[in-house]
Structures are given as C-alpha cells and as structure tokens.
C-alpha cells in the first residue's frame, strides 16, 4: 500500500453564519486540505489556486492521479475563519493568503486546548472539526 499523510491547517467557521461557513470552506480548499490532497486524488490543484502554481503536464496528472491507497489527515489545531476577517479563538496559526475569506489564525488559545471558541471560552475541544467532537 502507498499512502500519504497530511497535516494541513484546518479552518472552521467562526460562527454559524453562512458567510463564515463559506470562508472556512474556501480556506480549507485553497490553503489546507484541498491544496495538499487534491493533486494526489484528482491529479490537479483546486481550480481556485491553479493560476498561482506551476501547472502539471497531462503526463504528470496521470502519473499522480489516484495512485495512493489511503490518505491520512492529522488535525492538531485549527483556526476560525470569518467572512470579514478577524477570526478569533484560533491557535494562532499563520495567516492565510489574500482572498481566502478572512481566515487569519486568530489569537492564541488557552495554552492547552489548541484554541477556544469564537466567544472567548476555554476551548474545551473547540479545536475539533464537526463530527470529531467525541474523538
């Protein structure tokens, strides 16, 4: 078996607003999970970032597309993404590129949780994406 492990910066919505959900998804596709995984699974970078990357030749696309047997994704922290920027409660990760929907890393968390919720609470597992709450 051949696999690939990735540890991208994960963005989660800074609130339940649709625009924050979109900002989070955009950040994940453009700078995180999509950027590191798409080429190996689909044979090319996400469309939104192709212009800023060296293009794959058709031969390279066929060579890498779907050649891995499994994908491992390590998520150790994250950042809040908000449509207007200023995502708070993240783990202090690096800012995303311009136009990523306002994902900015936010201030450091409480020192042990990997970042708190946008309301400034203690974190309490707030660094886990939806569906990973029981992990």
From TrEMBL:
One of its GO terms (biological process) is carbohydrate metabolic process. GO terms for molecular function: hydrolase activity, hydrolyzing O-glycosyl compounds. Residues 24-33 have a biased composition (Polar residues). Residues 1-33, 76-135 are annotated as: Disordered. Pfam families: Glyco_hydro_1. Residues 83-135 have a biased composition (Gly residues). This is Alanine and glycine-rich protein-like.
């Amino acid at each position: 078996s051949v696999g690939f492990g990735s540890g991208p910066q994960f963005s989660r919505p800074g609130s339940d607003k649709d625009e924050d959900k979109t900002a989070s998804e955009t950040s994940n596709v453009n700078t995180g999970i999509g950027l590191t995984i798409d080429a190996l699974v689909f044979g090319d970078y996400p469309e939104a970032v192709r212009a800023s990357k060296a293009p794959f030749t058709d031969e390279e696309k066929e060579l890498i597309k779907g050649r891995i047997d499994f994908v491992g994704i390590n998520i150790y922290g994250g950042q809040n993404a908000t449509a207007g920027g200023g995502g708070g409660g993240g783990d202090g990760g690096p800012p995303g590129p311009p136009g990523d929907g306002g994902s900015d890393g936010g201030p450091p968390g409480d020192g042990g949780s990997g970042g708190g919720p946008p309301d400034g609470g203690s974190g309490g597992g707030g660094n886990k994406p939806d569906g990973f709450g029981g992990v």
